[in-house]
Amino acid sequence: MSLLTRLTDPAAWFTAETAWRAALTSRRAPSPPQGGADLFLCVVDHFEPSHGQPSREVALARLDDWLVHYPKIASQHRDSEGRHPPHGFFYPWDEYDETEFARLADLCADGWGEIELHLHHRDDTPGTLRAQLRDAVTEYRRFGALSAWPDGRPAWGFIHGDWALNNSRATPKRNFCGVNDEIAVLKEEGCYADLTFPAWRHTAQPRQVNDFYFAHGTVHHPKGHDRGRSACVGGDTEDGLLLLQGPLVPWTRKGGLLPRIGVDDGDLAATNRYHPARLDRWIRAGIGVKGRPDRIFVKLHSHGAPDANRNALLGEDLDALFSDAEARYNDGQRWRLHYVTARELYNLVVATMRGDDGDLTVARDFILLPPPHRVARFSA
């Protein structure tokens, strides 16, 4: 964690440090509970073809690389239900390009993923933030993206650009949000869950790690999401906004005079390549709904459009991740693997909280149905 975070948020540092040291004592490969476990794997992408402000031609070429290669990779893999892995494209409204979005919507219409909302915004008020969210939702729905609540209101997942949910990252020179009670605004506008975290090395990182929990914002101070009520069987699913976090776990590797020590935040990147030991760490974090240890959720993130990351993910790493998960965590007895989108992840968490123990195919669409353009693809 950065020195700035240690100085400005010592409680968050202490909590993360304590979790880190405790987890270092566990080096064994993860084992499922008696009766086996369902493993849900979700990849969400801060998908920014215009990252770094390239030319429009470069941005479209980045996107086209995904359009061509991701179906080829995903079509070679299946989970325990025979489903191919879908990709979670959290597309940035502040970098919106109609041609990009239309092409991405076509990819998802063929069943290779779902589009959700990503937003970088600065110095906003609740009013200006609402206006941006409503404009984005209106435009995204024009292409058949986004789900809907049972009453017809738009429903969407959210990732905050610049790691600044609830005005939790500000400097004397720049404010990366501006809205202390952003969670309340998101929920009122239709957001089903925030999937921003972890945000390792950033002040936005909450104290509550490796957990799904419901949080509230407050107008009185930033970072209202720092703690919340853990998702548990029988718990209230409406009190606050659900934060679906990914793993934040330590690692060590022997070699040289001293062992190497680091933190794995579930980022799939050129600077943090996939390795089977990472999957073991993510599963060992045991993220899920309290009271259901037989359902383990692994939510990973990436910035998949920039050149280095795109080459790593589409070149080797996604194929390696899926191959490894299917080989080691999908024997049908000890482990049952399920590829899920962000929307399905939300549905499964809520269904589990409400005591669901039935058909997981039904639980995937427990509340929020697939977006209008989504065609479920079970075969190549």
Quick tags:
380 residues; 32% helix; 14 strands; alpha/beta; disordered N terminus; 12-stranded mixed β-sheet; 10 helices
Structure write-up:
The protein has 380 residues and is an alpha/beta fold. It is 32% helix and 19% strand. The protein contains ten helices and 14 strands. Strands 1, 2, 3, 4, 5, 6, 7, 8, 9, 12, 13 and 14 form a twelve-stranded mixed β-sheet that branches. A two-stranded antiparallel sheet has the order 10-11. Strand 2, helix 4 and strand 3 (113-119) form a beta-alpha-beta unit. Helix 3 packs parallel to helix 4 and helix 5 (126-142) runs parallel beside helix 6 (182-189). The longest helix has 22 residues, at 307-328. The termini are far apart. 47% of the residues are buried.
Q: Structural class, please?
A: alpha/beta
Distance between the termini: 43 Å
Q: What amount of the residues lies in strands?
A: 15-25%
Q: Give start-end ranges of low-pLDDT stretches.
A: 1-8, 22-26
Largest sheet: 12 strands, mixed
Helix % is 25-40%
Principal-axes shape call: globular
- Estimate the mean pLDDT confidence: 91
Write the layout of secondary structure elements.
Elements: H1 3-8, H2 10-23, E1 37-46, H3 56-74, E2 87-92, H4 98-109, E3 113-119, H5 126-142, E4 147-148, E5 154-160, H6 182-189, E6 191-194, E7 212-215, E8 229-230, E9 241-244, E10 249-253, E11 260-264, E12 267-268, H7 276-284, E13 295-302, H8 307-328, E14 335-339, H9 342-353, H10 360-363
Parallel strand pairs: 1-2, 1-13, 1-14, 2-3, 3-5, 5-6, 6-9, 12-13
Antiparallel strand pairs: 4-5, 7-8, 7-9, 10-11
Helix pairs in contact: 3-4, 3-8, 5-6
